[in-house]
Amino acid sequence: DAGITQSPRHKVTETGTPVTLRCHQTENHRYMYWYRQDPGHGLRLIHYSYGVKDTDKGEVSDGYSVSRSKTEDFLLTLESATSSQTSVYFCAISSTGGGETQYFGPGTRLLVL
Amino acid sequence: EDQVTQSPEALRLQEGESSSLNCSYTVSGLRGLFWYRQDPGKGPEFLFTLYSAGEEKEKERLKATLTKKESFLHITAPKPEDSATYLCAVQANPGNTPLVFGKGTRLSVIA
User: Fold this and answer.
1) Number of helices (H), then strands (E), in chain A
2) Do B99 and A45 touch (CB under 8 A)?
3) Stretch (H or E) spanning B19
4) Which residues of chain B fall below pLDDT 70?
5) What pLDDT does B97 receive?
6) For residues A33 and A96, is the Cβ–Cβ distance under 8 A?
7) A33: number of CA atoms within 13 Å, CB side?
8) Which of A44, A97, A101 sits opposite B95 (nearest CB)?
9) CA–CA separation, A87 vs A107, rounded Å?
10) Distant-in-sequence, close-in-space partners of B59: CB < 8 Å, separation ≥ 6
């Protein structure tokens, strides 16, 4: 299994509070991704990173920000959580961005009340 | 716009009853097509990558094939442990474009 951990694995929070999810990898891969998975929508890309301090937006980036200060860590922040951000969040990594397989973490289940 | 459609949404098979899952895609230029397996409460687990039409890959009871418009995941003599959701994703050229995922096929294999 690819060395990817996510924390926390489960979180319940209230509307309007900031939330930070962490993805940690031990593979020294250059690319890291954040996805959300919702019933009826499949996996959708939120943000991704192609190196330390290099990030870009995905399909559903509104209300989210990211940071990558070290190769191994990629943080996803919900600036002010809303109920529509209740979802399962997955981190993925790949060694390159083009045609290279992405390996996924175990996920974080977030409930916003 | 790149699109991926998987069918059927759900499939119920008897143990040993072979079948195929379909992944139809529309992409400007295919960089790669990916198949994943996802068990409930877990992250997607990589199965195969296909790059060009005519390519085939096998792993145990699974075989993935690719044409210019679709990919099939053939399951031969499935077992209950093959029950999972199978996800298909495509990446378009040029490289570094995001993966586009289908909604998945939920497979149940009954003993």
Assistant:
1) 0, 11
2) yes
3) strand B19-26
4) 95-96
5) 75
6) no
7) 26
8) A97
9) 10
10) B47, B48
A42 and B31 within 8 Å at the Cβ level: the answer is: no
Single out the residue of A108, A38, A105, A37 nearest to residue A72, CA to CA: A105
| Strand partners for A70 | A73
Query: Which residue out of A6, A101, A108, A109 would a mutagenesis test of the B interface target, given it has the greatest number of B Cβ atoms within 10 Å?
Result: A101
User: Could you give phi then psi for residue B82, rounded to 5 degrees?
Assistant: -80, -5
pLDDT tens-digit series, residues A35-57: 999 998 889 999 999 999 999 99
**Contact in structure between B106 and B9 (CB atoms under 8 Å):** yes
Which of B35, B52, B91, B99 has the highest number of chain A CBs within 10 A, making it the mutation to test binding with A? B99
Is A97's Cβ below 8 Å from some Cβ in B? Answer: yes
Of A48, A98, A103, the CB nearest to B31: A98
Residues in chain B with CB shorter than 8 Å from the CB of A58 are: 98
List of chain A residues whose C-beta atoms are within 8 Å of the C-beta of residue B94: 98
- Residue A83 is given by DSSP the state G
Cis preceding linkage at A106, omega within 30: no
Tell me the average pLDDT across A89-101: 86
Q: Report chain A residues whose CB lies below 8 A from the CB of B31.
A: 98-99
Nearest to A22, CA basis, from A91, A113, A112: A91
The C-alpha atoms of residue A100 and residue B90 are separated, in whole angstroms, by: 11
| Tokens, residue B42 | 């877990």
